[in-house]
Prior knowledge:
The structure holds 2 protein chains of 2 kinds.
Chain A: E1 5-14, E2 17-27, E3 32-36, H1 43-50, E4 58-63, E5 66-67, H2 73-78, E6 81-83, H3 96-105, H4 122-134, H5 150-163, E7 168-172, H6 180-194, E8 198-202, H7 206-212, E9 215-220, E10 223-228, H8 230-235, H9 237-247
Parallel strand pairs in A: 3-8, 3-9, 6-7, 7-8
Antiparallel strand pairs in A: 1-2, 1-4, 4-5, 9-10
Chain B: H1 2-24, H2 28-51, H3 62-81, H4 92-111, H5 116-136, H6 138-141, E1 147-148, H7 165-187, H8 190-200, H9 202-207, H10 212-238, E2 240-241, H11 248-261, H12 267-286, H13 290-304, H14 308-314, H15 317-322, H16 328-359, E3 367-370, E4 373-376, H17 380-420
Antiparallel strand pairs in B: 1-2, 3-4
Amino acid sequence: MTAALELKDLRKSFGPTEIIRGIDLKVEKGELHAIIGPNGAGKSTLYNLISGMYKVSTGTIRLHGKNITDKEPYEINRMGLSRSFQVSNIFPKMSVFENVRNGLLFHTGCKYAFWKLVDRRKDVTARTSEILQSIGLYEKREVPVLLLPYADVRALEIGITIAGGADVILLDEPTSGMSRSETERAVDLIRLIAKDKTVVVVEHDMGVVFDLAQRISVLVYGEIIASDLPENIRSSQRVQEAYLGADA
Amino acid sequence: MIKLFKISGVWIAAVIVMLFLPIIFSSGYAHSMLGLMGVMVIFSLAYNMMLGQGGMLSFGHAVYLGLAGYFTIHFLQMMEAGTIGYFPISLLPLFGGLVGLFFGILIGFVSTRRAGTIFAMISLGFVEMMTVMAFLLISFFNGEEGIQGDRMLGPEPFGITYGPAIQVYYLIGVWTLIAMLAMYFITKTPFGRMSNAVRDNPERAQFVGYNTQRVRWMAFSLSSFFAGLAGALFALHFEHIGYESAGAWLSGEVLFATYIGGVSTFLGPIVGGILFIFLKSTLSELSNVWHLYLGGIFLLTVVYAPTGLAGLVLMHEPIWKVDFKLLRRMVLPYLGALVAILIATAGIVGYIELINFVSDEYSTGTAINFLGINVEAHSIMSWVVFAILTIIGFGLCKVIFPVVSRNWNDILETAKERLLQ
């Protein structure tokens, strides 16, 4: 079986500095995979490479066996990979409803149509409402996003990401800055998404990571030093020294 | 259903206004001005598909209006010469639209590769090229003189000859309504929504599957279609087109019209197009330094009312939705502010006119006509009076403006409280 996402000897340099230094990683279909690592390890850079925001220096990225290495972000998205952002990246002048709907317009065949009214597409409205319900924002659908509380913005961020129906979802610190109860809500949401999708999540909250992930990869200074089951990661000497040891 | 009725109500009102305006203002001059207003409304709305809806600032959008105008006149000339068969004059705007669309697709492909400042620079490049071409390709553009055609051609269905200005006005009126409806419709389509999305957050738009350059290119091309449509009407209106209507001059005017009307709403460019033509025709009658006044108005809009005139009005919408009576508290402050502004404006305008009068070697007589009053230009008293007016005006502004903003904040708070109850 081909992996949902497969990185081979992936490298990225900015000028003379190599940030990603040869990453090999396999995420199987249906897996909930967490990537952890200290600040500056290259987690965000890695996401930017996979999602096409940055161009790869060398190496290959495969999505369901298809090479996506030099593709544009929108092409990668159309092939079934969608990502969220660490700093919320939404459409600031629109309502909650419109934000989510933007996420699925292309994937419901609306594409660039300028000859049909978007409100007439009942299926689009229904699907948007469904997503809004799953992220718990249905009641607030008419609210302009600028007025939303932070936790709701984070939920919306995930809503836009999953709206298009991509089967590989990359989440970038979905619980950052959240309170305990908000985090719990986010974790439930991620579990719900992971039921029928492949989910990769970068996360700082170790509680969340060990609670959620089926497998964990540890990224330190641009290299993956371990990629294993949570219990093996917890007991690994190497990981403890390189990463967990620092705050333990 | 009620919502649908409300929306169509606005359009029905627009039709009625369009039908009866030339009856109320019945002079030939008025018909000509009303026709130009229609052309400018289409052009401003088209321009705003890029500026307001798509976030692209163009300094050269008259190129598409102008090229369509040239092609329309050539079309008329060829029909007259019998080189080509007859084509209904009433449908020529469609031909103009296609010309605009063609050049929009062509030039848009290059210029929409980048957004922001670079896009603006490229638009400036193309408009300069257009002007140069007008003087190089003489056989097509005929340089400084431009070209003219005769719109009174062919059969006359229902007695429509397009001789009298009023017939041209109705032609423009009908096309203005069609173009307005079409452009309004486009804002409600998937493309229209994503055009806004790409304006606000191009990065995220890419990550939900949209090629942002493609969205901008489409906005550019569609906008050029409507600019071309306006161009054909423009050419039919004047029966002439020259390089100034395809160059930086008209490109600047449409930016001005759209901006003073307001870029953030669909209503804005409509208001702007009408207001601009009105200002231009009336101010140019009243003063020969009218450009200065237009510039001043533009400057004040950019600095103090960046949402434009429509934005200023619609700013009150959340309040009248809560309770229209709340706005009563604004009546007196607004009247006061208006008086203060008028006094200050009178003082400044008086000064400008005096300076212009004494420095202009073609001035005749010793007095200027200011609002029907003869003001002696060489008497020290006139200068003192205008100075006093200016000072009083600004003084009043200083007193009244804080009251306006205090009352405004009060009713805004009240409205918010009632809304959240």
